[in-house]
Write the structure tokens for this entry.
Amino acid sequence: GDSVTQMEGPVTLSEEAFLTINCTYTATGYPSLFWYVQYPGEGLQLLLKATKADDKGSNKGFEATYRKETTSFHLEKGSVQVSDSAVYFCALCSGSVDYKLSFGAGTTVTVRA
Amino acid sequence: DAGITQSPRHKVTETGTPVTLRCHQTENHRYMYWYRQDPGHGLRLIHYSYGVKDTDKGEVSDGYSVSRSKTEDFLLTLESATSSQTSVYFCAISETLGQGNDEQYFGPGTRLTVT
């Protein structure tokens, strides 16, 4: 079945540091890939997405590239801020038959001033 | 923000009691989902709905039932709550499926504690 594996946290960084969160997936067909973010006390929000190989999703300074050859969708940001402290989830949706999003376990990121 | 509300937002109940959580949307989206969030597991799908009175099981459906009598409301019921159902429950909605339109919008969550 479909599955997502993302790097375990927690991750603690200083402001302006570079952030990478690794995500790899297993899926049939050609899934859409997502990064969701959950700020403290809130629900999940879509951060970015990519729907086909080599697509790059970007938003709020975050980027991730859909790499079919390595089945990966790593999240990166060049200079993090305290406001980026959150839990980040990688997820996939494998097409029109399977309606479900499959989530990774989440990575908690804390950015210190 | 997508118009999704969940009620109650917090609930403490005793083992063996029935509990119903409500998700209400104002977006007229066809698809609705219930997830539970637990440390180390991310979000896991409990049940989902692809239309009024059309529902199906997710990966962790045991001990839960759902109903959808109107487009805007999706109810999750724990028939007899157990301590293992202590969790944060999220409702989500989506408009379309496939062709790159698989985005889901999430509600604020309900924190349920079963003592």
About this structure: Chain A touches chain B at residues 4, 32, 34, 36, 42-46, 49, 51-52, 89, 93, 95-96, 99-101, 103-106 (CB under 8 Å). Chain A has a mean pLDDT of 91.
